[in-house]
Amino acid sequence: MGGFVWGLLILNIVILTLFFLLEKLINKLLGVEKKKMSEYAGKKVDLLVNFITYIIFLCTVPLSIYLTRDINVVKWYWILGSIFIFGFHSILEWKYMKNSKQYITTLILLILSVIFIYNIRYVFSIIGVM
User: Fold this and answer.
1) From CA 69, how far away is CA 90, in angstroms rounded?
2) Whole domain around residue 100: which residue ranges?
3) What are 18-59's pLDDT values in tens digits?
4) In angstroms, rounded to a whole number, what is the distance separating the alpha carbons of residues 124 and 14?
5) Of 111, 102, 110, nearest to 31 (Cα)?
6) Contact status, residue 27 vs residue 105, Cβ threshold 8 Å
7) Banded model confidence at residue 76, pLDDT cuts 50, 70, 90
8) Three-state DSSP class for 82?
């Protein structure tokens, strides 16, 4: 059990690092200068929705995992969460960052994360976690 947990932790670190590097690469290819929402008028909306989303997410993750014990339910939970979070950020970036195409990067990451999560069982089988 301990090896499985460490394997998932390492996998999460690798995935987050890959998404970070992918974001940098997409920004470079599209010529997008990364800006923070805190520099724009939408920062209060962004902070409030992020806070509420993460509280709800942290409270419902254990329910989706331990009560259902169904990989498909958990997979769709993560897909819907990703769509909400990335979608919301892309809308804010589009609305408040008028001179930036940063929302395009966010939408690309949304699509890639949904594809990745949908195929997570296959990814796990390749690396030997499941």
Assistant:
1) 32
2) 2-127
3) 989 999 999 999 988 887 766 777 778 888 888 898 888 888
4) 13
5) 102
6) yes
7) confident
8) helix
CA distances from residue 18 to 15, 21, 36, 55, 92 in whole angstroms, order as listed: 5, 5, 20, 25, 24
Give the residue-averaged pLDDT of 113-127: 81
pLDDT of residue 127: 65
| pLDDT tens digits for range 121-130 | 777 677 665 5
pTM: 0.78
Residue whose C-alpha is closest to residue 20's, from 113, 96, 119:
113
Geometric angle at alpha carbon 77, from 75 and 79, rounded to 5°:
70
Question: Do the Cβ atoms of 35 and 100 come closer than 8 Å?
Answer: yes
What is the C-alpha radius of gyration for the chain, rounded to an integer number of angstroms?
16
Longest CA pairwise span in the chain (Å): 49
* Interaxial angle between packed helices 43-62 and 71-96, expressed in degrees from 0 to 180 and rounded to the nearest 10: 180
How many structural domains compose the chain? 1
